Amino acid sequence: MAVASLQSLNDDVLGMIVGLLSQPDTANLVFTSRAVSSVARRHILSSLVVSAPAQSLEFHRLMLEEDDGYRIQCLQRLTIIFQDSVDEPTDAGGYSPLATVLARARNLRELVMGSLEKHLTMQSGKVLSDAIASLSDLCELELRDIGKQSVELCERLTCEPKVVCLAADPWTEPAPYLEVEYSRFAGLPVLRNASTITLQHLSLTRNGTPESQPAPVTPWSSTRTLRLENMDPLALIELCPNLTTLRMGFMWFADNGSTLYPDDAHSKYITSLARDVRVDTRVRVLDVFVGNEELALDKTIIATTRATLPVVLSIQFHYGDAALWAQLAELFKHTDARLRYLDVLMHDESEYAQTWFDECLPLLSSCPILCVRLKFVQCLLEVMAEDEFASIKDRPEPGELIDSEWEELRDAAPKLLAETIPSLRYIAVSSGYMVGDLAWSTFGGGWARWWNVAREALENETEGSTVELVEIDEGEGRKVDEYMRSAWFAKTLQFHD
User: 166 with 185: CB under 8 angstroms?
Assistant: First the structure.
C-alpha cells in the first residue's frame, strides 16, 4: 500500500499536523520544509504575543508594512502583556501603532490582555481602550489585572464573545477584591451572551455593601459554565438560570501577612442569607477546590451545595472533617437532593485520609449515591504543567504513589466503599497529579480502575446482601463518567419543587 507523502496532503490536514507541534518546531519547518512552509508560517502568525507599549511600533511594522497584508490576515489570537519602554522615554510611541494593528485585524477572534489597568492608565491608554472597544468580532476575551478603568472599558465593549475571563489583581491596595456595584456588573454587555465565564477576585456590592438583591431583568441566559476564584458564588449563580457547571476555586493569600483570604466572612451573600439560601439555578456539576486547609469555607461549601442541588459533586476530602461531611450527608439525603456521583480528591496526608474512611465515609451509608470516584495525589500544591503531563500520561502508571500508606488506602478503598454505601453501582479509583496552574489546577489521572458493584441478596433478607466487584475497562468507565455528568442523566432524576 502506497504511503502518502507530505506533498499529497491538503492544507487542512497539514494544519492539523502543524498544530500538534511546539512553536520552535513549527518555526523550524518554515525554513526547512517546502511542503509545509506556508502552512507553518500561517500557524505561527495566527497566535502572537506582544509587549506594549515597548514593542507597539515594532509590532506595527511586522504586521502591516508589507504589500499584500498576508500577516495581518493570519492573526487570530493576540496576547498583549505590559512592558514599558526601557531605552526611550516613558510611553514613547504610545499605543497608536498597536491600535492601528487592532483596527486592521479583521480575523482576530481571541484577545488576552495582561495588566490591563496598567495599560489604560498610561499616557495614551485611551487610544488602546478605544481600539479594544471597537473589536466587535471577538469569540474569546480575557482581561487580567482589571481595575476601575477596566470596568469602564467593559461597559463600552462592542463584542459578544462566547468565552470571557475578567480577573482582578488580589494584591491591589487597599482591598484584596475589586469592588463593583452589583447591577452595573450584571448588566455588562460583554457577559450577556457568554457561554463560559471566568471571574476572579471581584466583590459585588450594592451602595457599597455586599448583600443580596434580585437578578436583573436580563440575566446571563447563555451561560453554561461559571468559574469563580475567591468569590462569593451565590452572588452570581442567581444570574445564570441555565448554568450546568459551577467551579469554585479558593486560593490562600494574606493581607499584610495577617488576615487570611478568602473565608466565609467574605461571602456576604452566604453569611447574610444563612441556611435557607435557595435559587432557581440547579447545576449538574459542582466542583469545589480549596488551596489551603486553613481557609474557613464550610458555610460557603454547604450553602452552595444546598442552593444548586448538583448531580455531581467534585470536592476534596477536607482532611477528614467529620462536621463538614455530616452536613453534606444530610444534604445528600434530602428529598430534593440530586447528588448521585461523588468525586473525592485525597491528597497530602495519608493519616487524615484514613480518618475520612473511618469517620466520614460511614456518614454516607444511607445516601442514594450511585458512583464514587476517589482520586489520589501525593501533594495538592505540586502542580504539573499541561505539556509536561502530556509527555508522561501514556506511561503504564504515570500517577504512581510514592508512599506505601497511600497505596494501601487506594487498594482497600473499592471494597470498603461498596460495603459502606449500599446504593453504589460504580466505583473508580485513580492516581495522578494536579495539572494546570496553581489557581485552576485539575486532577490529571493517568492510572485509573473502574468496578461495577454486583449485589446478591442473602436468603435471609435481614442479613443484607453479598458484594462482588466486577472490574470494567477504563474506556467503559469513562462512558459511565460522561453519562452521569450529562443532561440525559440529570433528566432521569426526580425532585420536588
Answer: no
Residue at 63 is within a domain: no
76: phi then psi, degrees, rounded to nearest 5: -120, -30
Q: What sign does the dihedral 350-351-353-358 (CA atoms) show?
A: positive
Residue positions counted in the chain: 497
pTM across the whole model: 0.86
Q: Are 278 and 207 in contact (CB under 8 A)?
A: no
Assess if residue 24 is contained within a domain.
Answer: no
Question: Distance from first CA to last CA of the chain, Å, rounded?
Answer: 63
Does residue 363 fall inside a structural domain? yes
* Averaged pLDDT, 310-314: 96
User: Are residues 121 and 54 in contact, defined by beta-carbon separation less than 8 angstroms?
Assistant: no
H or E stretch including 442? strand 442-457
Q: Decide if 355 is inside a domain.
A: yes
User: What's the domain count of the chain?
Assistant: 1
Report whether 410 contacts 395 (CB < 8 A).
Answer: no
| Residue among 315, 318, 254 nearest 288 (CA) | 315
In DSSP notation, 137-179 reads: --SEEEEEEE-HHHHHHHHH-----SEEEEEE-TT-SS-SSEE
| CA atoms of 445 and 84, how far apart (whole Å) | 42
Domain range for 449: 311-497
**Alpha-carbon gap, residue 320 to 356, rounded angstroms:** 4
Confidence of residue 1 (pLDDT cuts 50, 70, 90): very low
What count of other Cβ atoms lies within 10 Å of the Cβ of residue 110? 18
Q: Are 95 and 67 in contact (CB under 8 A)?
A: no
Phi, psi of 238 (to 5 degrees): -70, -15
Alpha-carbon gap, residue 310 to 214, rounded angstroms = 22
Is the model's pLDDT at 236 over the cut of 50? yes
For residue 446, the model assigns a pLDDT of 66
